[in-house]
Write a structure and sequence with these properties.
heterodimer, A: 240 residues, alpha+beta, 8-stranded antiparallel beta sheet, 7 helices, 8 strands, 18% strand, B: 167 residues, 4-stranded antiparallel beta sheet, 5 helices
Chain lengths: 240, 167
């Protein structure tokens, strides 16, 4: 268990783009991201609904994927197991409506003019953009998003597809959770046939459906990959 | 006497062999690998797409379901505009999804046997225009191609909308 409390002086050297998030850049804890917990959560809920989060009905893919990330940050540990607004979720009540890192069920920000970007918990393009914009000085999951390939997809990554062409920030249609990678495949050179996924809307046929079986023969350029490394929060991660 | 003994030995050997064959399958290791399945009904139909009456009632159920869904979304203020443009069975997607689900973990959970899927599973393609209120819904506005997964509930004798995906 590595809980790293970063020094404020170091944090102030990182991204500091907008006033809404600078208040967060005080003293943040680094939360470990557990890909195995992500996969276990996906296996438990790919064919059922966690009543804590409910469902978006006919469009539940990113809600399910966000839940898996939440679980990977140990959201189901401790007191937060019964709340959708406490960490590791990032509620607008905590960071403000004008923050780009609002990430909580049924919550949204006013940060972007394109409204779907403001729903990072529930919209595939919104989640990918939030991860792309994440930093060590803002609350929430931290990582990066690659548009147009699956090269670095790994267990615990969230991948998304544009059914109509190359994946870009504005064209993502559907999110999936990587639950397994093919043995012997290498991060940096992964492709469609190396990945197994769990998904909602529509449901994968198991928590480990081969990506090619689920999506069909779409090129790698149609995918984005959001890789989550850690979370950053103003309190220590839950241990049990 | 000698012939009787030989006959008895042969009979015992035959019984032993038959018993051994019968027991053999239960000695095989269990596996989670889905069984390979061919999709043919006994009357020659490949799936419910070939059943005109089933398709008709399924389309009617899909239409009333999606209209009711968006009516509810409108009442909740999430949808500003909705217009259904087309609705039809998509045979290619029906076949693709039956082959994905047959023998899978999800099929076992939902008690979808392969014969059940072949006769009671259809994918309806709905095309519509929708405009969401971006402060109330995370969904994308525009011209949407929405695939509705429909299964026939044998107890209620009705088609039900059980899952979705969009393209």
């Amino acid at each position: 268990m590595s809980v790293l409390k970063l020094k404020p002086a170091k944090l102030l050297l990182t991204k500091k783009k907008d006033a809404a998030v600078t208040d967060e850049a005080t003293s943040l804890y680094q939360w470990t991201y557990y890909p195995n917990v992500v996969a276990n959560y996906a296996a438990e809920y790919f064919d059922s609904v966690n009543p804590l989060f409910g469902t978006n009905g006919s469009n539940n893919c990113q809600n399910f994927a966000s839940q898996c990330v939440w679980a990977g940050l140990r959201g189901s540990y401790g007191a937060t197991a019964t709340s959708t607004t406490t960490y590791p979720s990032v509620s607008s009540n905590i960071v403000g409506k004008n923050s780009k890192n609002v990430w909580a069920r049924n919550d949204y920000s006013n940060y972007y003019s394109q409204s779907y970007f403001n729903w990072a918990w529930d919209n595939a393009a919104g989640f990918a953009k939030m991860i792309a914009a994440s930093s060590m000085s803002t609350y929430g999951p931290y990582g990066n998003t690659n548009y147009g390939n699956l090269n670095y997809a790994d267990k615990g990554s969230i991948i998304a597809i544009n059914w109509d062409g190359t994946a870009t920030q504005t064209t993502l249609d559907h999110a999936m959770v990587v639950t397994k990678v093919k043995s012997g495949s290498t991060s940096g050179s992964r492709n469609r046939s190396d990945l197994y996924i769990a998904a909602n809307s529509n449901q994968s046929n198991s928590a480990y459906e081969p990506l090619l079986n689920y999506c069909g023969n779409y090129p790698e350029a149609n995918y984005s990959t959001s890789i989550i490394h850690y979370g950053y929060y103003p309190q220590a991660q839950y241990n049990n | 006497m000698k012939n009787k003994k030989i006959s008895l030995i042969l009979a015992l050997a035959l019984i032993f062999l038959l018993a051994g064959c019968k027991n053999e399958p239960s000695q095989l290791p269990e596996t989670d690998e889905p069984e390979e399945t061919e999709y043919y009904l006994s009357d020659g139909k490949e799936n419910a797409c070939d059943d005109a009456k089933a398709c008709e009632t399924c389309i009617q159920a899909a239409e009333s379901s999606i209209l009711a869904y968006f009516e509810n979304e409108k009442e909740e203020g999430k949808v500003k505009f909705f217009e259904l443009e087309d609705l039809d069975i998509d045979e290619e997607e029906t076949v693709r999804n039956i082959s994905r689900y047959a023998g899978s973990e999800l099929a076992r959970t939902k008690k979808w046997s392969t014969p059940y899927l072949e006769e009671n599973f259809l994918v309806v393609r709905a095309e519509y225009s929708v405009e969401y209120d971006g402060t109330k819904s995370p969904d994308n506005s525009g011209d949407i191609l929405h695939y509705m997964i429909m299964t026939y509930n044998l107890e209620n004798s009705s088609w039900e909308w059980v899952d979705s995906y969009m393209r």
